[in-house]
Design a protein that fits this description.
By secondary structure, this protein is of the alpha+beta class. Helices cover 27% and strands 30% of the residues.
């Protein structure tokens, strides 16, 4: 059921990728799960029919008796009623998509990648930047991980859902969007004009640092496993002593790819399990074949390592296969599914939770590193290099 489903941090890609399972959404290409045009299954909630009768009764009374008949726009009332249902769930990864937003989500899944190139998530009910994509319009405009989006084209983002934000920020290349951004540790917000563009998705980068291989995984795309296999073959030929996997500010991506990536480092067992609302558990096992390595590994994480990044970090940590270093991860462990409604709108619904091989819940918890530090940039990489060198002495 969950094969090829995209792990979202949600990381919602607004901005030109594919909806992100990622800790949020990618403002560029978001990694949403597959679209299911059929209606959602009927609820087994015992009082559902009686509750719906009451809602219908209220609807009929309003339409028949409300004094200002010109205010009775049934389409708007319908949307607001659905939004009310969603709001009552208090789940940042469950959202209503109007027909326009639904079409954007569907086009993302078909590979339309235009936007500003940033991953966006929700934290404490605020829209935050998980990470700008390398060399994207957002990156060139100075957007940083941890930035809060206060306004979109002059409209307050307070209370705005991830999907609403995506619909407003996304757009064709060559057009502009104005964002009011609050940078971390800066007193005053700044207004940023960003011209949308076609986004080139970079899966990972690889280089040798002395005898240690440094692999930066930006997100888990359809190319990640192939690119990593090539890198591991090169690592083997170069006689490396260890590997650094850097998933800082990685918002997530495709579930299949993270299972494949983890399988390069694990011999057997499961990589991740999902548990749905009926308690049904589905476990995804380590896959055989491919390039395997038993070199010592350090995984670098930060507060914006989300979703698929947390699946990888949690699996390698549970099996004692890697040392996790950095800061606690984002805590996005929800499985989401997009349903199409009859009028062309949609519901993006949380349908299950992720668990690590040892049964640790990822949602709201994150992965706690073995070594907790707040080093930034190359300083964290240097720590990992020194750590791996010390282990071979």
């Amino acid at each position: 059921m969950f094969r090829r489903m995209k792990v979202t941090v949600i990381i919602l890609a607004v901005i030109g990728l594919s909806l992100s399972f990622s800790a949020g959404c990618t403002l560029a290409g978001r990694t949403f799960p597959p679209v299911f045009p059929s209606p959602a299954p009927v609820s087994t909630f015992p009082d559902a029919d009686r509750s719906l009768e009451t809602v219908q009764e209220a609807w009929d009374i309003i339409l028949k008796n409300y004094v200002d008949q010109e205010k009775l726009d049934s389409s708007r009332l319908k949307e607001e009623a659905i939004k009310g249902l969603i709001e009552a769930l208090d789940d940042p990864y469950t959202a209503y998509l109007n027909p326009q937003a639904y079409r954007l989500s569907a086009s993302d899944l078909r590979g339309s990648f235009e936007g500003i190139g940033a991953h966006v998530g929700v934290r404490d009910k605020a829209l935050i930047i998980i990470a700008p994509m390398p060399d994207s319009p957002a990156w060139r405009a100075g957007i940083r991980p941890g930035d809060t989006i206060l306004e979109i084209n002059g409209e307050s983002a307070e209370g705005m859902s991830l999907e609403e934000a995506v619909a407003r920020i996304r757009g064709p290349r060559g057009t502009a969007v104005k964002l009011l951004i609050q940078h971390l540790d800066e007193p005053q917000p700044v207004e940023v004009d960003i011209v949308r563009a076609e986004i080139r998705i970079i899966s990972l980068s690889f280089e040798m640092k002395e005898s240690i291989a440094y692999v930066r995984i930006f997100q888990f795309t359809e190319r990640t496993d192939e690119d990593l296999s090539t890198a591991l073959s090169t690592i083997s030929r170069n006689g490396a002593d260890g590997i650094i996997l850097d998933v800082r500010s990685n918002p997530g991506g495709l579930l299949d790819e993270v299972v494949d990536v983890a399988s390069h480092f694990l011999k057997e067992g499961i990589v991740v399990s999902t548990v749905d609302n009926k308690g049904n558990r589905e476990s995804l096992p380590v896959r055989s074949g491919g390039v395997k390595t038993d070199l010592p590994v350090v995984v670098l994480t930060d507060n914006f390592s989300a979703s698929a990044s947390e699946v990888l970090s949690g699996a390698l940590q549970d099996y004692g296969r890697a040392t996790i270093a950095g800061t606690k991860t984002f805590g996005k462990g929800s499985v989401n599914q997009l349903f199409r409604l009859k009028d062309g709108s949609g519901l993006f619904i949380t349908i299950a939770r992720w668990f690590t091989p040892n049964g640790r819940l990822i949602e709201g918890k994150g992965i706690t590193p073995d070594y907790d530090f707040d080093l930034k940039g190359d300083d964290a990489v240097q720590w990992a290099l020194d750590f791996l060198k010390s282990k071979r002495q």
